[in-house]
Specification:
Elements: E1 4-10, H1 17-30, E2 36-41, H2 43-55, E3 61-65, H3 75-83, E4 86-87, H4 92-99, H5 101-110, E5 118-122, H6 129-136, E6 140-144, E7 154-156, H7 159-169, E8 175-180, E9 185-193, E10 198-199, E11 203-207, H8 215-219, E12 224-227, H9 234-251, E13 255-263, E14 269-275, H10 285-292, H11 297-310
Parallel strand pairs: 1-2, 1-3, 3-4
Antiparallel strand pairs: 5-8, 6-7, 6-8, 9-10, 9-11, 9-13, 11-12, 13-14
């Protein structure tokens, strides 16, 4: 059997480099070496080699396990489009829109998916705390607009914490999203497919080391518990899966994405964000969801690659 030649990209230069390295190593270990010939590249110092090899058609598919800037924001995908190389995950526009939390919220809301009240500020804005409090209230979540893995995110219960949170978030980008804090249960839904995307089992996230799903809760061993399938009735499960598919389709995603929600005390769901290249580490959510439907990591990756090759 002729092997499919795959370029596996992981590492990179974003503030999520360490997560990408861990995700990429897990993917490399799980890929079926009988089916695939794998070429590894770290864009941090091997980008020129990768571009040359792509131009020379050394491989037929790129599997980018890159999180954050120049990986998950559409820039890499634009390069691959120019080079005429197939790749896994969403195309340029969907990647760029998903990476921008504010733009993703606008699109989700337009598609009929509820979102929490929020305001976006720029470093150059003459913003003031009373105005933010009037528009959003306290407590709030403070987030860099274009950063993932909960890097730079904080919860603010007071003006002092809001000031600190904004300063911290601005270290990771030019824009900051300040979003009304909704107390409730956190869920995520992975969506797979292209023309007819399907929802995978819902996962409930129970942070163990923080009061929200922050970086430590995401990546430390024991940082959070994942309940999959989530303990929801059929009607509620169908509701959140339908909302996730709406977001996936409205943004124009492909192959795979993970859509995060919070459910308030009245069982109302609010869209948080969408991840177009979800984490693939040993403690990540998508592999958990795949296992719940009987897909081990190797088989799951086979399905993902097949989807990209058919796209």
């Amino acid at each position: 059997m002729q092997k499919t030649k795959i370029a596996l990209l992981y590492g990179g230069t974003s503030n999520e480099r360490e997560v990408s390295l861990r995700s990429g190593a897990a993917v490399l270990e799980a890929l079926d070496k009988q089916k695939y010939e794998i070429f590894e590249y770290d864009p941090k110092d091997q980008m020129q080699n990768f571009i040359k090899d792509a131009y020379d058609k050394k491989f037929e598919l790129v599997l980018p396990i890159l999180h954050g800037e120049v990986g998950e924001d559409g820039k890499l995908q634009g390069l691959l489009e120019i080079l005429g190389i197939k790749y896994v995950f969403s195309r340029c526009l969907a990647q760029a829109l998903s990476m921008n939390k504010n733009k993703a919220k606008i699109i989700a809301k337009a598609a009929g998916v509820p979102t929490a009240n929020s305001i976006t500020i720029n470093k150059s804005d003459n913003y003031n705390l009373p105005n933010i409090k009037e528009k959003v209230g306290l407590p709030v979540m403070v987030k860099p607009v274009s950063s993932g893995s909960s890097v730079g995110i904080s919860k603010a219960n007071s003006e002092e914490e809001l000031t600190t949170g904004i300063a911290s978030a601005f270290q990771h980008g030019e824009e900051v999203l300040i979003e009304k804090y909704i107390q409730g249960r956190e869920f995520t839904v992975a969506i797979m497919g292209n023309k007819v995307p399907e929802a995978m089992p819902v996962v409930e996230i129970l942070p163990q080391v923080a009061d929200f799903y922050d970086y430590r809760a995401k990546y430390e061993e024991g940082g959070s518990k994942h309940i999959c399938p989530a303990e929801l009735d059929e009607v509620t499960t169908n509701k959140i899966q339908t909302l996730a598919i709406k977001v996936f389709k409205a943004i124009g995603c492909a192959d795979l994405a993970r859509v995060d929600f919070i459910m308030d005390k009245e069982n109302n769901f609010y869209f948080i964000e969408i991840n177009t290249i979800p984490g693939m580490t040993s403690v990540s959510l998508v592999p958990d969801s795949a296992r719940a439907v009987g897909l081990d990591f190797t088989t799951f990756l086979d399905k993902l690659i097949a989807s990209a090759l058919e796209k």
